[in-house]
């Protein structure tokens, strides 16, 4: 049977067909749908959202050493978080097979960096596969399990956004059940004490020799001979673009098993073509090795190393063809930056923070990063998961040390707090910085599209679970001043921030209200009720002061002709923020 | 078999471009085409500009449409049509425009003005078909079916109506919204006859 699948869906299908029994991940674009789709195979695979990527990978390490087949998936910066176990796991190797998926983001669509995670494979000395479409994504999970088992090594599958989120046709197969491997205690294999690691270090190099042979003979590194005047070596989506542009005008070496690099095969291919192009997105990972092997080629000398490639870029840079485009006027295009949704409770928090002077607002990763943009303008930094609290601590120390009159507010989401904010807050308490930690508890992992986390009380596969209580956690970490508020009550929010600013010790404000787009759980409905309210503007009362517009709510618009605010009834989620900021009570609940 | 065709669906996060592209690609596959589709998720969903690239034909390589290569650009919002217009193939490309405006944050906060004459601008340089999808959807008392109205118009204009699309929609759309969506689809097809 054939099915149209995204690369992520295909990875999930591959996990099912490969007989994988355990999956763990932390959500992150563009990798999120891998675990979401694995979770649908409820009878065959246990799928878990871990609090962070390090935990996810470590769960896979344990599952594999214990003898089972497992997969971990994460976005590119997630592998930074999981890098610690990654390197050790390369040393110990696995018992049952282990697959690690990293989803990179050339073009930085929804990430902090454009890092090329292929270098992790080289640095950790792990085999790496890179699919060029969804069919290969599925096939490579099955192959990765086989390689993993044969060489007792974890295997990396490296995707990019265009592979993860592109659909192509996949031929489905059936699941092959794999028995578990017997677990035998062996401290000379599974502990990384220095004496053991020194032994494993040699084994790692030996393993790489075998994997190099494997890579040179892999069906994923395939040659297609056409015209030999141009030879193209390409990986991932770049291969598809090359095929699109050059068709049969060139010969191709598609690199799917990309580490260890199949240099014997590359040498053979290169020797039979006139001009060699190495086409890869972002870094010259293959190219620098190819050049180091003494093979002349073109690559980053003509193609950009920043951003995504495209068929058009290849046409222009390699073929020298420049196509005419429609003569549009760029100055007529208005920007459309992403915005916090109508009804988002984060808006209230940033509206309130943005009004205050002398704050250093330390932000974090999530929708609430948008608090930095106008009209809210309420953020100073946004670095990486969990950094709001720890960088906030550092900033507070500097401001104290240099006698700068700034108060630090660290703003972090619920899922991000569980991910890596807890240890940061422990540092605040232990090392005594007077920061305010504002936890935006919207009851879900919002930006990646609503995944459960330890605080929601449900697992990835929909089972009820112990709900992590943020208030109890922060108190246990040693925070003496904790307030739990409804951020959509501006008075309450205002007063809580005032109080926190006056408190001479670290404090925490938990702003608890569900994401405006969240499908409320039974527990949520009990706590928050079902709010299906809409607000309307009493036109005769509106004085056109635009105070409501300055909340940045996308449901509001200012009608220049009548000089009044209008509320889009389809978009309004009834949060009441605009009504609360209106100085003349012109915005009221729609009683209909 | 036809040469590769490219359809670019654009709009604003939350307008339902993804559902429209899902129905379209499923139908194309069942028609026997090789199909690829590419979209971007994540941050841009939050009220930002969104796009779904759809390519079909005998054999498809790139899932991404390059500038100047779209046979049809279908846009759920006026400004988005203009933003993506350079993706349309000069000469033969057709722009299907929903004459519906969603002012973006810089417009709402008064930093920029929403141009009034976009449809005229577009019509001057490209083949434009205007669909009043919001009114059609509102007439059906199903405001959120604007995406399916536009899908109906697209399928008619792309000459893909030789297919049981109702059946495809039935297999994808939840029962609760099925009737409204089927009506919206038919109304969309009818709107461009």
Describe the fold and architecture.
With 592 residues, chain A is α/β, with parallel strands linked by helices. Helices cover 36% and strands 18% of the residues of chain A. Chain A is built from 21 helices and 23 strands. In chain A, helix 1 (7-17) crosses helix 7, helix 11 (236-246) crosses helix 14 (311-319) and helix 16 (387-401) packs parallel to helix 17 (414-430). The model of chain A has no long low-confidence stretch (mean pLDDT 96). Chain B has 193 residues and is an alpha/beta fold. Chain B has a single domain, classed as Pyruvate-ferredoxin oxidoreductase, PFOR, domain III (Pyruvate-ferredoxin Oxidoreductase, domain 3). Chain B is 40% helix and 19% strand. Chain B is built from 8 helices and 6 strands, in the order βαβββαβααβαααα. Chain B has helices spanning 17-30, 78-84, 105-108, 118-125, 133-139, 146-157, 165-172, 175-191; strands spanning 5-12, 34-39, 49-57, 72-75, 94-98, 127-131. Chain B has a 6-stranded mixed sheet, sandwiched between helices. In chain B, strand 4, helix 2 (78-84) and strand 5 (94-98) form a beta-alpha-beta unit. Chain B is globular, with a radius of gyration of 16 Å. The mean pLDDT of chain B is 92. At the A-B interface, strand 8, helix 11, helix 14 and strand 21 of A face helix 1, strand 2, helix 2, helix 3 and helix 4 of B. Strand 8 (166-171) of chain A pairs antiparallel with strand 2 of chain B, so a sheet runs across the interface.
């Amino acid at each position: 049977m054939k099915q149209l699948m995204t690369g992520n869906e295909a990875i999930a299908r591959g996990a099912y067909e490969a007989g994988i029994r355990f999956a763990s991940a932390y959500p992150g674009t563009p990798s999120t749908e891998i675990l979401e789709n694995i979770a649908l195979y409820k009878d065959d695979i246990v799928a878990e959202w871990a609090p962070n990527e390090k935990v996810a990978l470590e769960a896979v390490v344990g599952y594999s050493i214990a003898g089972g087949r497992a997969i971990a998936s994460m976005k590119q910066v997630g592998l930074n978080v999981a890098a610690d176990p990654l390197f050790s796991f390369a040393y110990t190797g696995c018992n049952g097979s282990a697959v690690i998926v990293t989803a990179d983001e050339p073009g930085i669509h929804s990430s902090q960096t454009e890092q090329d995670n292929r270098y992790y494979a080289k640095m950790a000395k792990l085999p790496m596969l890179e699919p060029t479409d969804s069919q290969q994504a599925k096939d490579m999970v099955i192959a990765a399990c086989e390689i993993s088992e044969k060489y007792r090594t974890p295997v990396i599958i490296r995707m990019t956004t265009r592979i993860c989120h592109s659909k192509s046709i996949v031929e489905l197969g059936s699941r092959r059940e794999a028995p578990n491997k017997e677990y035998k205690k062996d401290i000379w294999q599974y502990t990384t004490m220095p004496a053991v690691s020194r032994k494993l270090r040699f084994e790692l190099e030996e393993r790489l020799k075998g994997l190099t042979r494997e890579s040179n003979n892999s069906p994923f590194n395939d040659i297609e001979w056409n015209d030999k005047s141009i030879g193209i070596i390409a990986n991932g989506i770049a291969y598809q673009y090359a095929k699109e542009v050059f068709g049969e005008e060139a010969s191709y070496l598609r690199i799917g098993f990309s580490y260890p690099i199949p240099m014997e095969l590359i040498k053979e291919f290169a020797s039979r073509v006139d001009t060699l192009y190495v086409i890869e997105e972002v870094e010259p990972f293959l190219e620098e090795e190819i050049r180091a092997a003494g093979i002349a080629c073109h690559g980053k000398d003509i193609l950009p190393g920043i951003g995504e490639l495209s068929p058009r870029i290849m046409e222009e840079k390699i073929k020298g063809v420049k196509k005419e485009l429609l003569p549009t006027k760029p100055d007529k295009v208005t920007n459309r930056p992403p915005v916090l949704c109508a009804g988002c409770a984060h808006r209230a928090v940033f509206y309130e923070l943005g009004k205050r002077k002398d704050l250093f607002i330390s932000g974090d990763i999530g929708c609430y990063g948008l608090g930095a943009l106008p009209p809210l303008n309420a953020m100073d930094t946004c670095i990486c998961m969990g950094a709001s609290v720890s960088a906030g601590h550092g900033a507070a120390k500097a401001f104290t040390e240099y006698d700068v009159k700034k108060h630090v507010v660290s703003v972090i989401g619920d899922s991000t707090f569980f991910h890596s904010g807890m240890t940061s807050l422990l540092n605040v308490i232990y090392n005594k910085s007077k920061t305010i930690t504002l936890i935006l508890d919207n009851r879900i992992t919002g930006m990646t599209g609503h995944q459960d986390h330890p605080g929601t009380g449900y697992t990835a596969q929909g089972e009820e679970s112990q709900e992590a209580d943020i208030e109890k956690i922060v108190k246990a970490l040693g925070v003496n001043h904790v307030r739990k508020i409804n951020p959509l009550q501006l008075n309450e929010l205002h007063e809580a921030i005032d109080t926190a600013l006056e408190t001479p010790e670290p404090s925490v404000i938990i702003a608890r209200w569900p994401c405006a787009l969240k499908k409320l759980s039974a527990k949520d409905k009990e706590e928050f009720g079902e709010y299906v309210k809409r607000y309307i503007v009493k036109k005769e009362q509106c004085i056109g002061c635009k105070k409501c517009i300055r909340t940045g709510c996308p449901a509001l618009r200012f009608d220049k002709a009548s000089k009044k605010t209008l509320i889009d009834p389809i978009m309004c989620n009834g949060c009441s923020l605009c009504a609360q900021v209106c100085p003349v009570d012109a915005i009221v609940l729609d009683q209909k | 078999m036809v040469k590769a065709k490219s359809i670019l669906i654009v709009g604003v996060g939350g307008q339902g471009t993804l559902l429209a592209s899902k129905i379209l690609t499923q139908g194309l596959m069942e028609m026997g085409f090789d199909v690829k589709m590419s979209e971007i998720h994540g941050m841009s969903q939050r009220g930002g500009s969104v796009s779904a690239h759809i390519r079909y034909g005998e054999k498809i390589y790139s899932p991404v449409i390059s500038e100047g290569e779209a046979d049809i650009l279908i846009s759920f919002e006026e400004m988005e049509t203009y933003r993506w217009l350079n993706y349309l193939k000069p000469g033969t490309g057709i722009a299907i425009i929903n004459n519906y405006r969603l002012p973006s944050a810089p417009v709402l906060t008064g930093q920029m003005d929403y141009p009034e004459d976009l449809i005229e601008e577009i019509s001057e340089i490209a083949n434009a078909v205007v669909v009043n999808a919001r009114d059609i959807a509102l007439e059906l008392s199903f405001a959120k079916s604007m995406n399916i109205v536009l899908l109906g118009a697209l399928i008619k204009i792309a000459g893909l109506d030789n297919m049981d699309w109702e059946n495809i929609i039935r297999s994808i759309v939840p029962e609760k919204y099925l009737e409204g969506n089927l009506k919206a689809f038919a109304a969309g097809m009818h709107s461009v006859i």
